[in-house]
Amino acid sequence: MNHLKSFLTGARFFAADSLKPSWIALYDIDDTSTFEHESYTCLRANRSPREGALVVRLETLDRRTCEALVDSGESQITSSLASSNPTTFIITHGVNVTGGGSVEAWADDSLDRLKRVKGWVRTRLFKVNDNLKTGLSVAGKGPEEQRVAKYFVLHGALYLGLFQRDMNESRTSSEFESSAAETPEFTNIIVSHNGFETVERRSWHLYRAYPGIAQGNLPV
After folding, report:
1. Per residue in 74-105, pLDDT tens?
2. d(CA 125, CA 104)
3. Rounded to a whole number, what is the distance in angstroms from the first to the last CA of the chain?
4. Of 160 and 113, which is predicted with more confidence?
5. Which of 162-166's residues contact partners 24+ apart within 8 Å by CB, and which partners?
6. Of the candidates 62, 81, 119, 201, which lies 20 to 30 Å from 159 by C-alpha distance?
7. Mean pLDDT over each residue of the chain, to the nearest integer
8. CA 3, CA 7: separation in Å to the nearest integer?
């Protein structure tokens, strides 16, 4: 992001649910063709020794390139993944269509209910255009290991317990980690749809949102 104007935002989160993988990095880009541009491919081909040594030791590296389909809209409370005022907590999951409905209908119904939840910030639905899993846990395994949900959903929250606990209730950091996104109310909102399957539900805590040239907070 120090060199690529096409990377609009970027943020890294650590797991708040004690599951694996332990980290997730998310980026907003201006166009998926960015990944074919020399400015990006050159950086990947010429990793630093430190980064190269890290990548080969990873248990799982799960890359997904996604295209935005539905967005509830930018919030005035946080800047989502931008470094100025990033969202502190996110909940991610996949969605597969198992019936005859459209995923946009799933999103519209879910958003209508999520918008009434105190502490909810933003929800975005993406189509997964491309993905690749590598790492020690994947090496030597068959193509079934590469299967992921067709759609990826990103929810922003002021705190992980927003779907059950009051915003002003004081909580310790350990309570934040065990509280969850996985409350009956939240689960009901995202999974109570016939013809749709919700998978890979995860909750995450912000580690850092990175400045970038595109955000205007790094020198060109």
Report:
1. 998 899 999 999 999 999 999 999 988 899 99
2. 8
3. 11
4. 113
5. 162/89, 162/117, 162/118, 162/119, 162/120, 163/117, 163/119, 163/189, 166/118
6. 62
7. 84
8. 9
Low-confidence winner among 36-45, 64-73, 142-151 (lowest mean pLDDT):
36-45
Complete DSSP assignment for 78-135: --TTSSSS--SEEEEEEEEE-SSS-HHHHHHHHHHHHTTSTTEEEEEEEEEEEEEEES
Query: Are residues 212 and 8 in contact, defined by beta-carbon separation less than 8 angstroms?
Result: yes
Task: Say if residue 145's pLDDT is above 70.
Answer: yes
CB atoms within 10 A of CB 46: 9
Q: Which amino acid is at 219?
A: P
Torsion angle, alpha carbons of 129, 157, 121, 112, to 10 = 80
Q: What is the pLDDT of residues 10-20, one digit of tens each?
A: 999 999 988 89
| DSSP sequence for 166-199 | -TT----HHHHHHS-S-SHHHHHHHH--TTEEEE
Peptide bond into 21 cis (omega under 30): yes
pTM (two decimals): 0.85
